[in-house]
Amino acid sequence: xxxxxxxxxxxxxxxxxxxxxxxxxxxxxxxxxxxxxxxxxxxxxxxxxxxxxxxxxxxxxxxxxxxxxxxxxxxxxxxxxxxxxxxxxxxxxxxxxxxxxxxxxxxxxxxxxxxxxxxxxxxxxxxxxxxxxxxxxxxxxxxxxxxxxxxxxxxxxxxxxxxxxxxxxxxxxxxxxxxxxxxxxxxxxxxxxxxxxxxxxxxxxxxxxxxxxxxxxxxxxxxxxxxxxxxxxxxxxxxxxxxxxxxx
Amino acid sequence: xxxxxxxxxxxxxxxxxxxxxxxxxxxxxxxxxxxxxxxxxxxxxxxxxxxxxxxxxxxxxxxxxxxxxxxxxxxxxxxxxxxxxxxxxxxxxxxxxxxxxxxxxxxxxxxxxxxxxxxxxxxxxxxxxxxxxxxxxxxxxxxxxxxxxxxxxxxxxxxxxxxxxxxxxxxxxxxxxxxxxxxxxxxxxxxxxxxxxxxxxxxxxxxxxxxxxxxxxxxxxxxxxxxxxx
Lengths: 248, 230
Prior knowledge:
Number of strands of chain B: 0
Number of strands of chain A: 7
CATH architecture of the largest domain in chain A: Orthogonal Bundle
Number of domains of chain A: 2
Mean pLDDT of chain A: 96
CATH class of the largest domain in chain A: Mainly Alpha
CATH topology of chain B: 3 helical TM bundles of succinate and fumarate reductases
Strand content of chain A: 5-15%
Distance between the termini of chain A: 59 Å
Largest interface: A-B, 51 and 42 residues
Low-confidence stretches of chain A: none
Largest sheet of chain B: none
Distance between the termini of chain B: 57 Å
CATH topology of the largest domain in chain A: Fumarate Reductase Iron-sulfur Protein, Chain B, domain 2
Shape of chain B: elongated
Radius of gyration of chain B: 20 Å
Shape of chain A: elongated
Radius of gyration of chain A: 20 Å
CATH architecture of chain B: Up-down Bundle
Strand content of chain B: under 5%
Oligomer: heterodimer
CATH class of chain B: Mainly Alpha
Structural class of chain B: mainly alpha
Order of helices and strands of chain B: HHHHHHHHH
CATH superfamily of the largest domain in chain A: Alpha-helical ferredoxin
Largest sheet of chain A: 5 strands, mixed
């Protein structure tokens, strides 16, 4: 396949940045999207040009490191996959592909397609955990009986890899799908009850302070989420937040 | 509890509550208006009751006006805040791939509804307030000096829908209301945390309400235009 790539190039956080066109030839349909970018970078390096910076790590769809807004969608046109799992067979010979970083004020661009998603880490630090005594007397989590439905729903929420596709896809750059998944995975389990009030209040407060927008229930996040995190989690977080607000 | 309205979820909750309140109001408004087609006499009696009963006039009307203002102001405030959460736009964004046009354009459908509401107030509400509270005529009669003249409400309604331009304007206004409701109805329930086994059924109710009520209002306007005796 021969393709035209329109890629966002930005030298650094303070650079204005612009879209730059690249031609790439002989792309195999079996390549992953990131492998295609690897090939492009090899060619750029050979020519003495600056390679395109982009995030990646496991390349198995589980680490949440890869991002990219491809042809107007987070992680590209495929469903339920991250960019590293997207294959070039999804495109046609002669296509023009737009490749941009995830856009949000809370996700500032570091370089080219690499954005700083540490806002998510700070939201997690604000309450996305269960305090456990690790002095050697830790109780086996499996010793507590948990309803199968609740366990499964909590696990579904816990599959969120924190990639930020929800923020990138949302017209308001809202992080509510991410935060709600992190709130839900504990809200549904007995281990999460002790800190439930503080957790949701603190995480939502941090989310607001990071400058994410408000959710208007367009549902774009749910569609683009590579892990299929459901909007039900946002409804649950709203309930948890109201309950906590009246309590706290 | 303190500062709940300063939080994103608190504002979302308040927005949803005001929306649910306004949807109940619209249903009640429709229930009375459709009487103008089914039974003009009952419509006159219901209008006179709503227009003169103190609890409706001084309490419910005030709550309604506050609800409308809150919903619009909060809608615009949230839109400005949400816009500022993305300082650089995408060169290419495929919104149709993941969300409905209605859900992405609530501010536009809402803005047009606001324009329509202003026109609607000028058409009906201001003359009504003027008659009752400025001219002091609480009789509700066509001729306040003649008890036999009958109630004025139905006649005024039919008269208003004589010009085709006003009927067309109302059709456009209600189309925007339908577009707004097609997302807003379900969204309000999601915002208050109601996403459960009843959500699929609620989506059906949402479609019936969002299309049925505005279509009903359009029918009323067309009915009076084409069957009016003036």
